[in-house]
Design brief:
By secondary structure, the chain is of the alpha/beta class. The protein has helices spanning 22-33, 45-54, 72-80, 106-134, 155-166, 169-172; strands at 13-17, 37-42, 59-63, 88-91, 138-143, 182-187, 198-202.
Length: 204
């Protein structure tokens, strides 16, 4: 492959959360253009339908409210139905309530922790066995830029970014293999070439 050329992801299956807008939508389009079959997860069915229509490759919409953490095992099973078990997962769904430290509510805290931290961990936990079976996998999580740059408000989102940076998904699932899977942490708003915005860990 020539230097700088996009990867050929033909034969791979990607599950992308938050795919109806923003970074998730962009990730779904990029992966489809690279040849991956994409399962796009988000709440907004109309936006997902538009994504499917515009995608340059196979994309299946999977409407789902990720705040329902109890259903993540079922979501993982549904994500495997169209093309087989995903070996790429991109966690782009996220929440920032913009609450300052003295205004953080228990409800806002819990919602942020669920979507930004618990969902990436537990959904990956359900998908990793399929990656191990294939001997290949990639997990990418977008975290809050506030974990290393201060902004007014968003205290809960900053805490989830810190947690993901400290024990990113591969750490808790570490398992040396000849061809290890990789997990990567990207900070929202950080340029993809910035070292501070990318943390790459091997072994899932």
């Amino acid at each position: 492959m020539p230097a700088g050329a996009p990867p050929d992801l033909g034969g791979h299956v990607a599950c992308v959360t938050g795919a109806s807008a923003g970074l998730g939508r962009r990730a779904a389009l990029v992966l489809a253009r690279a040849g991956a079959s994409v399962v796009a997860v988000a709440r907004r069915e109309a936006a997902l339908a538009t994504l499917v229509d515009e995608a340059p490759g196979p994309v299946t919409a999977l409407p789902y409210d990720l705040s329902d953490r109890a259903g993540l095992a079922d979501l993982a099973a549904q994500a495997a139905a169209p093309y087989g078990a995903p070996d790429i997962v991109v966690h782009a769904a996220g929440l920032n309530t913009r609450e300052t430290a003295d205004a953080v509510t228990p409800a806002g805290w819990d919602a942020t922790m669920t979507l930004n931290l618990a969902v990436p961990f537990f959904l990956s936990q359900h998908l990793v066995p399929g990656m191990r079976a294939r001997g290949w996998g990639r997990i990418v999580t977008f975290a809050s830029l506030q974990s290393h740059r201060a902004f007014p408000g968003g205290e809960a989102a900053a805490e989830t970014g810190d947690a993901l940076a400290a024990f990113h998904l591969g750490h808790g699932m570490a398992h040396p293999q000849p061809d290890p899977q990789r997990v990567g942490l990207l900070h929202r708003g950080a340029g993809l070439g910035q070292h501070a915005g990318i943390k790459d860990h091997r072994h899932v």
